Every structure is written in C-alpha cells, then in structure tokens.
Amino acid sequence: MTTRQKFIAGNWKMNASLPANAALLGALLEGLRQQPPACEVAVAVPMPYLSQVQQLLAGSSVRLGAQDVSAHDAGAYTGETSAAMLRDFAVRYALVGHSERRQYHGETDAQVAAKAERLLAAGITPIVCVGETLAEREAGATDAVVARQLDAVVQSLGAAAAQVVVAYEPVWAIGTGRTATPQQAQQVHAVLRGRLAAARPEAARVAILYGGSMNAANAPELLAQPDIDGGLIGGASLKAPDFLKIIEAARA
Ligand code: PEP
Questions:
Q1: Domain that holds residue 88
Q2: Is position 33 within any domain?
Q3: Per-residue pLDDT tens over the stretch 106-120
Q4: Which CATH number does the domain housing residue 20 bear?
Q5: Is 40 among the catalytic positions?
Q6: pLDDT for 188-206, tens place per residue?
Q7: CA dihedral (193, 194, 198, 201) positive or negative
Q8: Are the C-beta atoms of 204 and 196 separated by less than 8 Å?
C-alpha cells in the first residue's frame, strides 16, 4: 500500500466459520465487483481460516490479514503463529497490540514492538493499534498513553517505522457503539502524526486508521478528517452491506 492511501480493514475478531466466511466474502466481493473500491481493503481473520480466505480472495483486490503474530521466530512456543507462517498464506497485514490482546493477554509495549519487527522481517505490514482506556481519557492521559504505545514501536523499528500502519482505537469505543467524535479522533491522530514526524521525517506519511464503533453512518465524517486515513472496523465488517458502505465512504 502506498502511504496515506485510504485504507479500510475489517477485524473479524473470533467470529467466523467456513460457511459464514464464504457467505460474507461472497457478498463483499460481489459488491466490490459492482463498485470497485477506491481504497485498499483488507480483512483480518482468525488463524484457522487463513487458507480458506486466501483461496476465496484469490484474484480479488482484497488483502488478507491476521489478528496477531508471535513475537518469536520459531521453536517451542505452543499455540503461537510465526510471521513466516503467515507469509505462507500470503498475509499482507497483521494487527499488533489490539487492545483486546493488551487487556486480556497482558501484551506489553515491548512485545508489540517485537511483533511488528517480526512481521516486517517477513514482508508483512503491521497495523499497530494504540488507544487509551476510558479512565485514562478521563484522567487527561490520552496523548501520553498513545505516545508511549507508539514510541515503543517507532524506537525499536528505527527507519522501518515508516513502513507500518497505525490504528488509533480508543478502548472505550471498541464494540461499545460509542464512537469518538470526529474532532476527538482527529485531535489524537494529529498527535500521532506529529510524533511519527518528529521521530522520523519519512514516517509522517504513515497511514493512521481510526477504529472504534465505526459504521456506515459515522464513517463519512470520520474519514473526512485531515489526519484520518481509513478505518479498522470490527462489528460492521461482519455485515457485507455495512462494510461496503464504509469502503464507499473512503472514496470521497
Ligand atoms: C476493533 O475490533 O478493532 C474494532 C474497532 O471493533 P468495533 O468496530 O466493533 O468497535
């Protein structure tokens, strides 16, 4: 993906089955055939379905994504999936540091940075998720929290930091139906862009996605903000008509 091209990525989370995936992607690809997208589109799917979704997406412009990756290269790490394994299935993008992984699996900033490094070494673009909790926002710590999360990755990647995608996902907005206002999101995106530019001039053009209850109704205004380059979509990516409308909103 060229930097700052509009980018809409779906995160299916732990929602999938062989027939459901075929139905969802059938409807998505048919919609995109009728109205080809003007942006990069990807779906981040659960690991067991990588092969199925790779086959379903073959010949389309929709990219395959994963929701996580191991921080290790190979070896005795039961249950984990390496970046090289993802590469075997032509995975183009992988989420790292999603708040559900930070929250439920204790993932640290250092682990997120290590995962991003492994992905880049395998030729896969990390989508680095950052975001504050409601308590952190109410304490006025939003900028400091997202800066800390981003800096950990930027510092460890060095010049390669320009090759990542960043997703700002306020934790209080994920799966809650409560969306950041376009102004709230833009403010944090501007902070993140400033931080990237200060660390590495070439990183100023990294795409920064917004995620958190983005839907067909609120996508146009969010995507119109100057520093919002796209969306990371959870719930609404499971409904083809809604996801298609968000993809269409990225055209403007
Ligand atoms: C997500 O899982 O990254 C997300 C943004 O979820 P939702 O759109 O459901 O809030």
A1: 7-249
A2: yes
A3: 999 999 999 999 999
A4: 3.20.20.70
A5: no
A6: 999 999 999 999 888 999 9
A7: positive
A8: yes
